Amino acid sequence: MTDQTGDDGRLLVYGAYGYTGRLVVERARACGLSPVVAGRRREPTTAVADDHGVDARVFALDDRETVADAVADVAVVCNCAGPFVHTAEPLVEACLSTGTDYCDVTGEIGVFETLAGYDDAAREAGVTVLPGVGFDVVPTDALAAHLADRLPSATRLSLGFQGLGSVSPGTAHTVVDSLSAGGAVRRDGHLQSVPLAHDVRWIDFGRGETRAAAIPWGDVSTAYHTTGIENVTVYAAQPGAVSRLLRAGSRLAPLAGAAPVQSLLHGLVDRVVDGPDERDREAGETYVWGRVTDGERTETARLRTPETYRFTAHSAVALADRVADGAPAGFQTPAGAFGPEVVSTVAGVEWVER
To answer: Is 60 exceeded by the pLDDT of residue 300?
Structure first.
Protein backbone atom coordinates (compact mmCIF):
# COMPACT_ATOMS: atom_id res chain seq x y z
CA MET A 1 0.00 0.00 0.00
CA THR A 2 1.33 3.41 -0.86
CA ASP A 3 1.35 6.35 1.54
CA GLN A 4 -1.76 7.98 0.17
CA THR A 5 -3.83 8.52 3.27
CA GLY A 6 -1.36 10.08 5.64
CA ASP A 7 0.62 13.29 5.31
CA ASP A 8 -2.10 15.08 3.35
CA GLY A 9 -4.62 14.33 6.10
CA ARG A 10 -6.77 11.89 4.17
CA LEU A 11 -7.62 9.56 7.09
CA LEU A 12 -9.00 10.34 10.55
CA VAL A 13 -9.48 7.45 13.01
CA TYR A 14 -12.14 8.24 15.62
CA GLY A 15 -12.05 6.18 18.80
CA ALA A 16 -8.32 5.73 18.29
CA TYR A 17 -7.60 4.84 21.91
CA GLY A 18 -10.07 1.93 22.07
CA TYR A 19 -8.95 -1.64 21.57
CA THR A 20 -9.82 -1.78 17.86
CA GLY A 21 -8.91 1.85 17.23
CA ARG A 22 -5.38 1.26 18.49
CA LEU A 23 -4.99 -1.74 16.19
CA VAL A 24 -6.22 0.29 13.21
CA VAL A 25 -3.77 3.10 13.97
CA GLU A 26 -0.92 0.60 14.37
CA ARG A 27 -1.79 -1.00 11.06
CA ALA A 28 -2.00 2.37 9.31
CA ARG A 29 1.45 3.32 10.60
CA ALA A 30 2.84 -0.07 9.56
CA CYS A 31 1.59 0.72 6.04
CA GLY A 32 3.46 4.04 6.08
CA LEU A 33 0.34 6.15 6.67
CA SER A 34 0.02 9.09 9.06
CA PRO A 35 -3.60 9.13 10.24
CA VAL A 36 -5.07 11.84 12.42
CA VAL A 37 -6.11 10.14 15.66
CA ALA A 38 -9.24 11.39 17.38
CA GLY A 39 -11.50 10.70 20.33
CA ARG A 40 -13.59 12.38 23.01
CA ARG A 41 -11.06 12.01 25.86
CA ARG A 42 -7.94 14.14 25.69
CA GLU A 43 -5.40 12.12 27.66
CA PRO A 44 -5.75 8.73 25.90
CA THR A 45 -6.15 10.37 22.48
CA THR A 46 -2.95 12.39 22.79
CA ALA A 47 -1.16 9.34 24.24
CA VAL A 48 -1.92 7.36 21.06
CA ALA A 49 -0.81 10.31 18.94
CA ASP A 50 2.46 10.61 20.86
CA ASP A 51 3.10 6.86 20.60
CA HIS A 52 2.86 7.02 16.81
CA GLY A 53 4.10 10.54 16.07
CA VAL A 54 0.87 11.71 14.47
CA ASP A 55 -1.62 14.54 15.04
CA ALA A 56 -4.45 14.32 17.56
CA ARG A 57 -7.91 15.90 17.65
CA VAL A 58 -10.11 15.79 20.73
CA PHE A 59 -13.83 16.26 20.27
CA ALA A 60 -17.09 14.78 21.47
CA LEU A 61 -20.01 14.11 19.16
CA ASP A 62 -22.73 16.18 20.83
CA ASP A 63 -22.16 19.36 18.82
CA ARG A 64 -22.58 19.00 15.06
CA GLU A 65 -20.62 22.14 14.18
CA THR A 66 -17.63 21.01 16.26
CA VAL A 67 -17.66 17.57 14.64
CA ALA A 68 -17.92 19.08 11.15
CA ASP A 69 -14.97 21.37 11.82
CA ALA A 70 -12.92 18.38 13.00
CA VAL A 71 -13.50 16.29 9.87
CA ALA A 72 -13.71 18.98 7.21
CA ASP A 73 -10.10 18.72 6.01
CA VAL A 74 -9.83 14.92 5.79
CA ALA A 75 -10.95 12.69 2.95
CA VAL A 76 -12.29 9.79 5.00
CA VAL A 77 -13.26 9.11 8.61
CA CYS A 78 -12.83 5.60 10.00
CA ASN A 79 -15.04 5.32 13.08
CA CYS A 80 -13.81 2.74 15.61
CA ALA A 81 -15.81 4.06 18.58
CA GLY A 82 -18.53 1.63 19.58
CA PRO A 83 -21.28 1.10 20.41
CA PHE A 84 -21.90 2.64 17.01
CA VAL A 85 -25.54 3.27 17.71
CA HIS A 86 -24.23 6.28 19.66
CA THR A 87 -21.45 7.46 17.34
CA ALA A 88 -22.28 6.66 13.71
CA GLU A 89 -25.02 9.20 12.99
CA PRO A 90 -23.25 12.30 14.37
CA LEU A 91 -20.15 11.49 12.35
CA VAL A 92 -22.09 10.65 9.18
CA GLU A 93 -24.10 13.86 9.39
CA ALA A 94 -20.90 15.87 9.83
CA CYS A 95 -19.32 14.04 6.89
CA LEU A 96 -22.31 14.81 4.67
CA SER A 97 -22.01 18.49 5.48
CA THR A 98 -18.29 18.60 4.66
CA GLY A 99 -18.04 16.17 1.73
CA THR A 100 -16.00 13.70 3.79
CA ASP A 101 -16.34 9.97 3.16
CA TYR A 102 -17.24 7.72 6.09
CA CYS A 103 -16.51 4.15 7.10
CA ASP A 104 -16.66 2.23 10.38
CA VAL A 105 -16.16 -1.23 11.88
CA THR A 106 -19.68 -1.75 13.20
CA GLY A 107 -21.55 -5.02 13.14
CA GLU A 108 -24.79 -3.59 14.55
CA ILE A 109 -27.87 -4.35 12.44
CA GLY A 110 -29.65 -1.19 13.57
CA VAL A 111 -26.70 0.97 12.57
CA PHE A 112 -26.54 -0.55 9.08
CA GLU A 113 -30.25 0.04 8.62
CA THR A 114 -30.03 3.60 9.92
CA LEU A 115 -27.11 4.48 7.67
CA ALA A 116 -28.88 2.93 4.68
CA GLY A 117 -31.47 5.64 5.24
CA TYR A 118 -28.80 8.25 4.40
CA ASP A 119 -28.33 6.83 0.89
CA ASP A 120 -30.09 9.63 -0.99
CA ALA A 121 -28.42 12.38 1.05
CA ALA A 122 -25.01 10.77 0.60
CA ARG A 123 -25.46 10.44 -3.16
CA GLU A 124 -26.50 14.08 -3.39
CA ALA A 125 -23.45 15.11 -1.36
CA GLY A 126 -21.11 12.84 -3.34
CA VAL A 127 -20.12 11.06 -0.11
CA THR A 128 -19.45 7.36 0.41
CA VAL A 129 -21.03 5.89 3.56
CA LEU A 130 -19.48 2.45 4.05
CA PRO A 131 -20.05 0.85 7.45
CA GLY A 132 -18.79 -2.62 8.36
CA VAL A 133 -15.21 -2.54 7.04
CA GLY A 134 -13.92 -4.99 9.67
CA PHE A 135 -14.55 -8.68 10.26
CA ASP A 136 -18.10 -7.46 10.68
CA VAL A 137 -18.99 -7.87 7.79
CA VAL A 138 -16.31 -8.06 5.10
CA PRO A 139 -15.77 -11.87 4.85
CA THR A 140 -19.44 -12.80 5.09
CA ASP A 141 -20.45 -9.99 2.72
CA ALA A 142 -17.89 -11.24 0.21
CA LEU A 143 -19.27 -14.78 0.49
CA ALA A 144 -22.81 -13.48 0.06
CA ALA A 145 -21.89 -11.58 -3.12
CA HIS A 146 -19.90 -14.50 -4.51
CA LEU A 147 -22.75 -16.95 -3.92
CA ALA A 148 -25.32 -14.57 -5.40
CA ASP A 149 -23.17 -14.35 -8.53
CA ARG A 150 -23.09 -18.16 -8.72
CA LEU A 151 -26.84 -18.54 -8.21
CA PRO A 152 -28.63 -15.34 -9.25
CA SER A 153 -32.02 -17.00 -8.67
CA ALA A 154 -31.26 -17.63 -4.97
CA THR A 155 -34.07 -16.84 -2.56
CA ARG A 156 -32.43 -17.94 0.69
CA LEU A 157 -28.96 -17.18 2.08
CA SER A 158 -27.32 -18.72 5.15
CA LEU A 159 -23.97 -17.51 6.48
CA GLY A 160 -21.88 -18.56 9.45
CA PHE A 161 -18.49 -18.54 11.10
CA GLN A 162 -16.41 -20.55 13.55
CA GLY A 163 -13.38 -19.54 15.56
CA LEU A 164 -14.21 -16.25 17.29
CA GLY A 165 -12.08 -15.92 20.39
CA SER A 166 -12.23 -13.32 23.13
CA VAL A 167 -13.80 -9.94 22.39
CA SER A 168 -12.74 -6.33 22.86
CA PRO A 169 -14.32 -4.05 25.49
CA GLY A 170 -16.15 -2.13 22.74
CA THR A 171 -17.67 -5.30 21.32
CA ALA A 172 -18.67 -6.43 24.80
CA HIS A 173 -20.38 -3.09 25.51
CA THR A 174 -22.27 -3.43 22.22
CA VAL A 175 -23.42 -6.92 23.21
CA VAL A 176 -24.66 -5.62 26.56
CA ASP A 177 -26.58 -2.83 24.83
CA SER A 178 -28.26 -5.34 22.50
CA LEU A 179 -29.17 -8.03 25.03
CA SER A 180 -32.76 -6.93 25.32
CA ALA A 181 -33.26 -6.94 21.53
CA GLY A 182 -32.97 -10.72 21.07
CA GLY A 183 -32.18 -12.26 17.71
CA ALA A 184 -32.92 -11.13 14.15
CA VAL A 185 -33.32 -12.62 10.68
CA ARG A 186 -34.37 -11.33 7.27
CA ARG A 187 -37.60 -12.86 6.00
CA ASP A 188 -39.28 -11.93 2.73
CA GLY A 189 -37.14 -8.81 2.59
CA HIS A 190 -38.05 -7.57 6.08
CA LEU A 191 -36.10 -7.65 9.33
CA GLN A 192 -37.82 -9.86 11.86
CA SER A 193 -37.12 -10.25 15.57
CA VAL A 194 -36.70 -13.81 16.82
CA PRO A 195 -35.52 -15.35 20.11
CA LEU A 196 -31.77 -15.72 20.55
CA ALA A 197 -30.48 -19.03 19.12
CA HIS A 198 -33.97 -19.73 17.77
CA ASP A 199 -32.46 -21.99 15.09
CA VAL A 200 -29.66 -24.50 15.64
CA ARG A 201 -28.12 -26.54 12.83
CA TRP A 202 -25.00 -28.54 12.04
CA ILE A 203 -22.55 -26.82 9.68
CA ASP A 204 -19.25 -27.97 8.20
CA PHE A 205 -17.12 -24.83 8.31
CA GLY A 206 -14.20 -26.80 6.84
CA ARG A 207 -13.16 -28.99 9.75
CA GLY A 208 -16.15 -31.31 10.06
CA GLU A 209 -19.69 -30.60 11.19
CA THR A 210 -20.27 -28.59 14.34
CA ARG A 211 -23.31 -27.18 16.09
CA ALA A 212 -24.12 -23.57 15.18
CA ALA A 213 -26.81 -21.25 16.52
CA ALA A 214 -28.52 -18.34 14.75
CA ILE A 215 -27.29 -14.93 15.89
CA PRO A 216 -28.20 -11.30 15.08
CA TRP A 217 -25.12 -10.59 12.90
CA GLY A 218 -24.79 -7.54 10.67
CA ASP A 219 -25.29 -9.50 7.45
CA VAL A 220 -28.97 -9.81 8.27
CA SER A 221 -28.96 -6.21 7.08
CA THR A 222 -25.99 -5.91 4.73
CA ALA A 223 -26.33 -9.14 2.75
CA TYR A 224 -29.79 -8.05 1.63
CA HIS A 225 -28.43 -4.70 0.42
CA THR A 226 -25.52 -6.45 -1.33
CA THR A 227 -27.40 -9.29 -3.01
CA GLY A 228 -31.14 -8.56 -2.91
CA ILE A 229 -31.73 -12.04 -1.42
CA GLU A 230 -34.78 -11.65 0.78
CA ASN A 231 -34.22 -14.41 3.36
CA VAL A 232 -31.01 -14.26 5.39
CA THR A 233 -29.92 -16.07 8.57
CA VAL A 234 -26.46 -15.95 10.17
CA TYR A 235 -25.01 -18.65 12.44
CA ALA A 236 -22.05 -18.88 14.81
CA ALA A 237 -20.49 -22.15 15.96
CA GLN A 238 -21.61 -22.81 19.54
CA PRO A 239 -21.25 -25.78 21.90
CA GLY A 240 -24.62 -27.28 22.74
CA ALA A 241 -24.55 -25.87 26.26
CA VAL A 242 -24.02 -22.35 24.92
CA SER A 243 -26.94 -22.69 22.52
CA ARG A 244 -29.19 -23.79 25.36
CA LEU A 245 -27.97 -20.90 27.50
CA LEU A 246 -28.71 -18.40 24.73
CA ARG A 247 -32.22 -19.74 24.28
CA ALA A 248 -32.82 -19.59 28.02
CA GLY A 249 -31.35 -16.07 28.13
CA SER A 250 -33.83 -14.87 25.53
CA ARG A 251 -36.57 -15.29 28.12
CA LEU A 252 -34.69 -12.84 30.35
CA ALA A 253 -34.27 -10.20 27.62
CA PRO A 254 -36.65 -7.64 29.18
CA LEU A 255 -34.71 -7.81 32.44
CA ALA A 256 -31.39 -7.37 30.59
CA GLY A 257 -32.64 -4.08 29.19
CA ALA A 258 -33.39 -2.56 32.58
CA ALA A 259 -31.16 0.42 33.44
CA PRO A 260 -29.73 -1.04 36.71
CA VAL A 261 -28.86 -4.33 34.97
CA GLN A 262 -27.29 -2.50 32.03
CA SER A 263 -25.19 -0.39 34.39
CA LEU A 264 -24.04 -3.49 36.26
CA LEU A 265 -23.11 -5.34 33.07
CA HIS A 266 -21.26 -2.37 31.54
CA GLY A 267 -19.28 -2.01 34.77
CA LEU A 268 -18.40 -5.69 34.63
CA VAL A 269 -17.14 -5.28 31.06
CA ASP A 270 -14.92 -2.38 32.15
CA ARG A 271 -13.38 -4.52 34.88
CA VAL A 272 -12.80 -7.84 33.17
CA VAL A 273 -12.73 -7.52 29.36
CA ASP A 274 -9.37 -6.79 27.73
CA GLY A 275 -9.57 -8.33 24.26
CA PRO A 276 -7.23 -10.91 22.69
CA ASP A 277 -3.50 -10.35 23.15
CA GLU A 278 -0.95 -10.16 20.35
CA ARG A 279 -0.18 -13.88 20.42
CA ASP A 280 -3.88 -14.73 20.07
CA ARG A 281 -4.26 -12.27 17.19
CA GLU A 282 -1.27 -13.71 15.35
CA ALA A 283 -2.16 -17.38 15.90
CA GLY A 284 -5.93 -17.30 15.58
CA GLU A 285 -7.98 -17.99 12.48
CA THR A 286 -11.65 -18.02 11.60
CA TYR A 287 -13.65 -20.25 9.27
CA VAL A 288 -16.50 -18.67 7.31
CA TRP A 289 -19.27 -20.56 5.49
CA GLY A 290 -22.11 -19.58 3.18
CA ARG A 291 -24.90 -21.31 1.31
CA VAL A 292 -27.62 -20.14 -1.09
CA THR A 293 -30.58 -21.96 -2.55
CA ASP A 294 -33.43 -21.21 -4.91
CA GLY A 295 -35.38 -24.25 -3.78
CA GLU A 296 -33.93 -26.46 -6.50
CA ARG A 297 -30.22 -25.69 -6.69
CA THR A 298 -27.81 -25.08 -3.81
CA GLU A 299 -24.37 -23.47 -3.85
CA THR A 300 -21.84 -23.46 -0.98
CA ALA A 301 -18.57 -21.57 -0.40
CA ARG A 302 -16.05 -21.30 2.42
CA LEU A 303 -13.28 -18.94 3.51
CA ARG A 304 -10.51 -19.06 6.08
CA THR A 305 -9.36 -15.71 7.51
CA PRO A 306 -6.90 -14.42 10.09
CA GLU A 307 -8.12 -13.83 13.66
CA THR A 308 -11.04 -11.41 13.70
CA TYR A 309 -9.39 -8.33 15.25
CA ARG A 310 -6.26 -8.77 13.17
CA PHE A 311 -8.48 -9.05 10.11
CA THR A 312 -10.40 -5.94 11.17
CA ALA A 313 -7.30 -3.78 11.55
CA HIS A 314 -5.99 -4.81 8.14
CA SER A 315 -9.29 -4.54 6.28
CA ALA A 316 -10.31 -1.22 7.87
CA VAL A 317 -7.11 0.46 6.74
CA ALA A 318 -7.21 -1.11 3.28
CA LEU A 319 -10.85 -0.18 2.65
CA ALA A 320 -10.48 3.33 4.07
CA ASP A 321 -7.61 3.79 1.64
CA ARG A 322 -9.73 2.52 -1.25
CA VAL A 323 -12.56 4.83 -0.28
CA ALA A 324 -10.14 7.76 -0.17
CA ASP A 325 -9.04 6.83 -3.69
CA GLY A 326 -12.65 6.91 -4.87
CA ALA A 327 -15.70 4.75 -4.24
CA PRO A 328 -19.35 4.94 -5.28
CA ALA A 329 -21.32 7.65 -3.47
CA GLY A 330 -24.22 6.73 -1.22
CA PHE A 331 -24.70 3.96 1.29
CA GLN A 332 -22.48 1.01 0.42
CA THR A 333 -21.61 -2.43 1.69
CA PRO A 334 -18.04 -3.76 1.32
CA ALA A 335 -18.83 -6.26 -1.44
CA GLY A 336 -21.45 -3.96 -2.92
CA ALA A 337 -18.78 -1.30 -3.43
CA PHE A 338 -15.81 -3.48 -4.35
CA GLY A 339 -17.12 -6.94 -5.26
CA PRO A 340 -16.51 -10.36 -3.67
CA GLU A 341 -12.72 -10.00 -3.98
CA VAL A 342 -12.81 -7.24 -1.36
CA VAL A 343 -11.99 -9.93 1.21
CA SER A 344 -8.69 -10.62 -0.56
CA THR A 345 -7.39 -7.17 0.40
CA VAL A 346 -6.33 -8.85 3.67
CA ALA A 347 -3.26 -11.09 3.53
CA GLY A 348 -3.86 -14.60 4.79
CA VAL A 349 -7.42 -14.96 3.51
CA GLU A 350 -7.94 -18.24 1.64
CA TRP A 351 -10.94 -19.35 -0.40
CA VAL A 352 -11.29 -22.94 0.81
CA GLU A 353 -14.22 -23.72 -1.49
CA ARG A 354 -15.60 -21.51 -4.25
So the answer is: yes
pLDDT of residue 256: 47
pLDDT digits (tens, 9 = 90+) for 87-103: 999 999 999 999 999 99
Cβ–Cβ under 8 Å, residues 304 and 286: yes
**Distance between CA atoms of 104 and 88, rounded to whole angstroms?**
8
Query: How far is residue 238's CA from residue 244's CA, in Å, rounded to a whole number?
Result: 10
| CA gap 284, 292 in Å, rounded | 28
φ, ψ dihedrals at 350, nearest 5°: -130, 130
Secondary structure of 310-346 as H, E, C letters: HHHHHHHHHHHHHHHHCCCCEECCHHHHHCHHHHHHC
Q: What percent of the chain has pLDDT over 90?
A: 71
**Which of 305, 296, 71, 332 is closest to 222 using CA atoms?**
332
What whole-number distance in Å separates Cα of residue 339 and Cα of residue 227?
A: 11
